[in-house]
Design a protein that fits this description.
Chain B: Its EC number is 5.6.2.2. The complex is a heterodimer of chains A (511) and B (381). Chain A is of the alpha+beta class. Helix content of chain A is 40%, strand content 20%. In chain A, a hairpin with a 2-residue loop joins strand 12 and strand 13. Chain A starts with 9 loop residues before the first helix and ends in a 6-residue tail after the last helix. The relative contact order of chain A is 0.09. With 381 residues, chain B is an alpha+beta fold. Chain B folds into 2 domains: 131 residues, Arc Repressor Mutant, subunit A (Orthogonal Bundle); 218 residues, Dna Topoisomerase Vi A Subunit, Chain: A, domain 2, CATH 3.40.1360.10. In chain B, the strands form 6 sheets. Chain B has a 6-stranded mixed sheet with strand order 10-7-13-12-14-15, sandwiched between helices. In chain B, helix 11 runs antiparallel to helix 13. Chain B is globular, with a radius of gyration of 23 Å. The chains are: A alpha+beta (511), B alpha+beta (381).
Chain lengths: 511, 381
Amino acid sequence: MSEKYRGLSPAEFFHRNKEIAGFSNPSRALYQTVRELVENSLDATETHGILPYIDVEVQLHEDRPEWVTLRVADNGIGIPVHEIPNVFGRVFYGSKYVVRQTRGVFGLGVKMAVLYAQMTTGKPIYVKSSTRDSDVVGEYLLYIDISRNIPHVQKMRIKKKNKNWHGTIVRLTLEGAWLQSKKRIEDYIRRTALISPYATIRYRSPDGELLFERVSKELPEPPQIGKYHPKGVDIEILKDLIRRSNNNDMTLAGFLEKYFEGVGEKIAQEFLTWAGFQPDTKVKELKLADLEKLATAMKNFPKWRRPRPLTLSPLGPELLKKGVKSILKPEFATAVIRPPSSYGGHAFIVEAAIAYGGEIPPQDNVLLLRFANKMPLLYDEGVDVSRKIVDSIDWSIYKIKFPAPVAVVTHVCSTKIPFKGVGKEAIADVPELEHELEIAIRDVARRLRIYLSKLEKMYEVKRKEVTIRKYMGEVSSSLAYVLNMDPSSISSLLEELLKKELEKKEVTVNA
Amino acid sequence: MPKNTQQAGKPISPSSEEVLARLEQLAKSIYDQIQSGKPPYLDIPVRTLANTIWDKKRKLLVLGPKTAKREFFDIGESKRFMQTILMLSLIVRARRENDYPTIRDLYYTGKHTIYYVNEYGKKVSEETWDDQRESNAVIQDIEVATGLLREHMGIMHDAKGRIVGNMIIRSKGTEIDLSRMGSGAWGIPSNVDQLEITKVEADYVLVVEKGAIFERLNEEEFWKKNKCILVTGKGQPDRSTRRMVRRLWEEFDLPVYILTDADSYGYYIYSVYRSGSISLSYESERLATPEARFLGVSTSDIERYKIPKNYIIKATERDIKRAKELMNYPWFKESKRWMEELQLFIERGEKIEIEALSGHGFKFLSNVYIPEKIANKEWII
């Protein structure tokens, strides 16, 4: 699984790309580090069929309050003992270089965190890990040797496992602005718990402990490792695949069939004819200009099959609803999943949920919770496609009158999330995606409307009952006085009539 | 002449047994609905302008045929239904105990607090009625639903009308000679229909708007010198004053003259004596005097009687607006003289009070103005 990449000095890369990676200042850096570690932990568990248990701890340094120690422990698949130094101490190394929905795409984030920690506090990173089938536990204290891009192990200990523990514990100390970032971090943990209702997440910080216990033992189908869709390639990918094929006799037709999704003999032939290539050309002989022409043709060929969504792992409406209910504690929640779709050769699936009432505070606008590949998106909401859609909807047609306690959750799963800009916090308004999102949001909004009108009707019935009963005593006793009767005989007759009246209007409401 | 078969002067109230029976019947009809498993309702003639008819021949506003179902199980009407039944029981109790409450008494007797839990589970409370307009309204509902007037039901009001003149009345077995009141006058009681008018010796009835003018004319013994019955409602007349005027016109064939200030308020008072008010149109048949003649003071009198400038008051915007409304009343609309008079009022924008005639001396009103106008038939109708 190890691939060699161009030798760009990670330190250089890091300095150049601090903003891109989200380490622009101590507050953002702390938040980003929490994120990277938690997301790694989730990928190490749920993707492999393990119900996640994740323990996050933030501690402030006793003497230097700007130093924050962060510890994240999981019960994931663990890292083979000999791989630990490379996984944490070498940039561009990892298992995520495949076509599959994962949270981080380049596996880069955690190394950025290590680098940042190392550069701001000079402290090594502590890692303890063990895999499921291993009988040892590895413990490391390590640095990244910045100039050489190799791990530098300060201390290492390998112990016999006495319990059947597997997972990874990472602890690092970095310069972070806890006070400025704590709200975001808590929000992030909370929303992560929402989108991972099968995970138990414990979060300890100077402010106390939060425990989100799993509300479901059902894991979503893990995403499968898939092939590239022909529409989604570029020259670099083509070069990489050709290099990997390691076969000097492979023809262009064979290459397409082997490495691309949904490409059979017939479609390969048809495409190559359309694009003006000889099907039996050896791929090894293709020049850069040929690759350029090939990539462009692959992007533009109109007859590829749509990408299959097997590489995606949405939550599904049931789980999403559970997550929404357990975190937002609304009186009503519903969720929907859209059929798979694609844009530019990338498969995607959209899910949406809506929640109303309960502990959601009434606000002048829809509370929006955005997720991409099970990651909460907390920043840049204003430019996100979901916000754009939510704001364009006239909510009064769904019986929402602001201020209203209403929250919309959107989840976009894709092998390539079309992020807007480099911050990876906002999704761009790609038309195909926007279309699916709008359908999904309107669908859950419609269900909310049905619920609200039932509720309205129920209150109407209740109001009627209350009103009639309120005056019944007065009517009974007054009539009884005039007619020299017993008031209770009149009120029991009225009571019966009221019951009949209400039965006519009976409404049941399921939240 | 609209004459009634009733013997002149006799009390015309239904017997108290009949009143009680009709009230009980209303309650019984509600109970019958409940017992037969039907949601209870009251059928109440609608008392809005849309259900008022101007009876051209009789020159009366009368209630139209429209009725409204007031259903207990309709939450919009439930409270009013309760209030109606509550009021019914209060009235029945008064009749059974031979009590004569005023409308204000009934308001207080029936007002109490209902505590309940609302649809959101909150403990709240509500008054049976919040102000007297609500209790008065259900009294009117019961009047139209039973065909009984509140006076028949023994409901009193703060009666303020006064009368003096050459006539004898029998009330509660006592004969009262209204010509022997000295400087005073007799207060017209709430229930005029229970009175027996045993003797009337007069040529006409003079109704004056203002109590002060009434006092002055009484002090001068105007009624004795001019052989008339003198009445005042002290401003806007109550039902009993109107009923008394009506009985004198209807049962004793006396012409009725109305004397008010020359402004839209005075003209409206005339209109109430003559045709009744829209909200109480169901009482018109009993209270209105369709042939009442407006004697004055009119706007045209300003010129005719050369009223000195210092007695002329500028009309307010409200006066003008009111006058324009009066021009739409059917009984004014069909009178050419009235339309001219109202038009003149609006054009001049000036009003005068009865007292303005004193500009020609204090006795001018009694010695000249009234007798001359009547003799010359210078009234407006």
